Automatic annotation (TrEMBL):
InterPro entries: HDAC_classIV, HDACs, His_deacetylse_dom, His_deacetylse_dom_sf, Ureohydrolase_dom_sf. Pfam families: Hist_deacetyl. Residues 18-285 form the Histone deacetylase domain. Keywords: Hydrolase. It comes from the Bacteria. GO terms for molecular function: histone deacetylase activity; hydrolase activity. CDD domains: HDAC_classIV. This is Acetoin utilization deacetylase AcuC-like enzyme. Belongs to the histone deacetylase family. GO terms for biological process: epigenetic regulation of gene expression.
């Protein structure tokens, strides 16, 4: 059974006009239920992740300042969010959603978090709509509980997974692969194990060729026993922040490459949704929903 993390806490309200589309976290489950791709039984509600698994990845001082609302104005500004206790609580639930989804993936082959993909959070700070890094926290949870020995992070959000790269820069148990807009945020890129910088306006065929050429060989090269997939849909041509040129079908084909590879090689995979900022919310929901549809088709 496809297990999917979702909580009402994911939909924390933001000030009117804020460019981060919180409403998508309600609309994705509604769409999937309406069309019959999933039922209520597919969803589980994450809890608050224990602090010990958070400080296993993030520096204690940063976590304490975050939870006590003592970040400086500059630190808050870099996150892109107006800091609040409820927002931090939301983030901690998202962390548990990804960890629990990874545990379900070990059981069922795949599991998904409607939120997550918070790849801009570093060991000691948040950036770019990310306070804590669910990809890194989940990877460390699996490794430290002897549930995995080698993890491949596949980050196909339009923005480089700079926080994830920094966290694992000296850990050869995690291979970080990021394929992102070369001239997009962040301006200063960290060094992943493999970075593929993409030109603005790249379209489906060129994008998919690069993905096949660089991602597929990593299975034999890295020999992962678990994949963490950041499936941001800000690669769409309609995205306000993305600057790439993918169609909805191209974005779906991207997901198909990753999910089919995991299934064929019998590598458990946890998918987190990442970014998406198209003008029309329907484009965001359709692109994200395709990832869930493919998971059902390919694995079940």
């Amino acid at each position: 059974m496809l297990k999917i993390a979702w909580s009402p806490k994911y939909c924390h309200p933001l000030p009117e006009g804020h460019r981060f589309p919180m409403e998508k976290y309600n609309l994705i489950p509604e769409q999937l239920l309406y069309e019959g791709t999933v039922t209520d039984s597919n969803f589980f509600s994450p809890e608050s992740l224990e602090d010990k698994w958070i400080v296993n990845t993030h520096k204690l001082d940063y976590v304490q300042k975050l939870k006590s609302q003592q970040l400086s104005k500059s630190e808050i500004r870099k996150t892109g969010f107006p800091l609040s206790e409820a927002l931090v609580d939301r983030e901690v639930h998202i962390m548990h959603g990804s960890v629990q989804s990874a545990l379900y993936a070990l059981e069922y082959g795949i599991a998904m978090n409607v939120a997550g993909g918070t790849h801009h959070a570093f060991t000691d700070r948040g950036e770019g709509f990310c306070l804590l890094n669910d990809i890194a926290i989940t990877a460390n949870y699996l490794l430290d509980n002897n549930l995995s020995k080698k993890i491949l992070v596949v980050d196909l959000d339009v923005h480089q997974g700079n926080g994830t790269a920094e966290i694992f820069q000296n850990d050869n148990r995690v291979f970080t692969f990021s394929m992102h807009g070369a001239s997009n945020y962040p301006m200063h890129k960290e060094q992943s194990d493999l970075d593929i910088g993409l030109p603005d306006k790249i379209e489906d065929s060129a994008y998919l060729k690069l993905l096949n050429d660089h991602f597929l060989p990593l299975i034999d090269q890295v020999e992962p026993d678990f994949i963490l997939y950041q499936s941001g849909v800000d690669v769409l041509a309609t995205d306000k922040l993305g600057r790439l040129g993918l169609s909805l079908q191209g974005c779906k084909e991207r997901d198909k490459v990753v999910l089919e590879c995991a299934a064929k090689n019998e590598i458990p995979i946890m998918c987190c949704m990442g970014g998406g900022y198209s003008e029309k919310i329907s484009h965001i929901i359709e692109a994200h929903s395709n990832t869930f549809r493919l998971a059902q088709e390919i694995f079940f």
